[in-house]
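To: structure desk
From: M.T.
Subject: fold request, one chain
Message: Could you run this one when you get a chance? Sequence is below, nothing fancy, just the single chain.
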Amino acid sequence: MKILDRDGRLFGKISIIDVIVILVVAVLALAIYVKGQMPQTGASVTTTPVVYQILADNQPEYMLDAIQVGDQLFDKERSTGGSLGEIIDVQVSDGTYQGELDDGTVADVPAEGYYNILMTIRGEALVGADGSVALNRIYDLGVNSHRYFNTRYAYFLGLVTDIQLQEADPAQ
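Reply: Done. C-alpha cells follow.
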C-alpha cells in the first residue's frame, strides 16, 4: 500500500491538506491552553505619587482664566489621552521678552499683556530603577523637556522645570 495515492490522499483515506489543517488547529489549541495556564504579570504594578512643575512662558491674558487649579493636564499627541495629573497650584508672573535697548544691549523687558504661568501638577507615575518617570504608565517625563500640553480650555507649550517623587500614602 502506498502512503500517497494519485489523488493526494494519505493511505487512500484522508487528504494531505486536511492533515495540515488539523495540525494547525491542534497547535493553535495547544497555544491557547498554555497561555491560559501561565500566571498573569503586571497586575499589581505600584505607582508612585509625583509632583512636577511646568512653566508656560509669555502666555496671553486669556490663558490665566483657562488654566485653573483642579484642571486635569493632558498631552493627546504623545499619550493614550489619559490624564497626566491634576493642577494643584498656579503661580503667575509678568511675561518678558528679550529686547534691544537704545544703547545696543539686549535685556529682558516686560511684555505687556503676557504672563509666565508656573503650574504645579500632582500625578501617578511608574518610576524606573534608573530614575525615569512614566506618567500614566507610558508617558515619559523629564526635566527641561518642552512639550505641548492641554487642559480642558487651554493648549500651550510648557517646559518641565522640576520633578519630585512623593511618599506613597499608606491609606490608599
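Reply (cont.): Helices lie at 16-37, 62-66. Let me know if you need anything else for the meeting.
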